[in-house]
Amino acid sequence: MKAQAPTAHGQGLSSQARNLHWLLTNLVDEVPGIRSVAVVSSDGLLLLSSDPDRADETAAKAGGTDGPRGSSADLATIISGLGSLTNGAAKLMDGGGVKQTMVAMEEGSLFVMSISDGSLLGVHAAPDCDMSVIAYHMALFVGRAGHVLTPELRTELRKSMESAQ
């Protein structure tokens, strides 16, 4: 099942915030196999999501098979934790900065890519997805979003996500 396009909480958002919502909507709509997407700040807070209105009980009633079992906040937690783990591993191995992490599972894949200032883009995808296509489109998103994801915009996006829940 295809991830829902994010709802633009449009009224009152800056043009940069609307543009990021549009970029996320395009990622979800254009790339086959994507189940859910989240953008997470360096402190682990959800900034953007492909399903910002999804509640824990909604996912439980639906069987939770199309994404992480809980809310979009659960995906944000997973992305943040995986980002922290891989950054720690890279430091221990003198590997430099982590550009991308990919976890292949029997029933899906998880991709995490650095955006800027510790922010992360995470994509949960179907098991039959084309990994190279997803990685390519994630890189496009990161290239377009990285330079506009300022501290002010991150604050605006956090407040927007809080009001959506």
UniProtKB/TrEMBL annotation:
It comes from the Bacteria. SUPFAM superfamilies: Roadblock/LC7 domain (SSF103196). Residues 21-125 form the Roadblock/LAMTOR2 domain. SMART domains: Robl_LC7. InterPro entries: Mycobact_SerProt_Inhib_Rv3364c, Roadblock/LAMTOR2_dom. PANTHER family: SERINE PROTEASE INHIBITOR RV3364C. This is Roadblock/LC7 domain-containing protein. It comes from Streptomyces piniterrae. The lineage of its organism: Bacteria, Bacillati, Actinomycetota, Actinomycetes, Kitasatosporales.
